[in-house]
């Protein structure tokens, strides 16, 4: 299991670096105030209206970087700092979350695919690690059933890995929609647009690191399984 701990350690270090970098970027661009004077909530509302979306509400949610779009309740949930603030970071996040609402309204294929596998991912994420560990313990005890249980655990983990990769085009597309709208509608200056783009770039990298980390872990488990079969 030493290999697993090494992979987990590397993933943790890279994730921590990207997360800290993201926080510093948002702090930096939170000091870049918008010349149009609009708050994140106002940015989100206008982008929704410009895209002909009238049935989605923009609401405030507690916490930092807790922003998300809820397709079931049809709400753009903006953290308090984004909802009320009038800076490039708030504009970037607000427009990004509305980007997801636009994806939903236009039945964006990757978002639709991700939504369909959410129930399976919920189950797989809760069970995979327990099943994998159980399979390893049974195998170490000399039970033939151990390899079968281990394989089932790997398959469950593969579902969560697939989800992280399907999430990537969803997140990148939402950012592209946000940046295009901000620029095409003259919502931000060139400097503000550059700040928004940089902030969203680092936000996207958190998803990329998660996907690559999950893939590395999956491949490690697969290598163990194949090694046990030889």
TrEMBL record:
Arranged from A to Z, the UniProt key words for this protein are: Membrane, Transmembrane, Transmembrane helix
Q: Where are the transmembrane segments?
A: 6-22, 117-138, 144-168, 207-227
Checking Pfam families in the record gives: Zn_peptidase_2
Listed InterPro entries? Zn_peptidase_2 (IPR007395)
Q: What is this protein called?
A: Zinc metallopeptidase
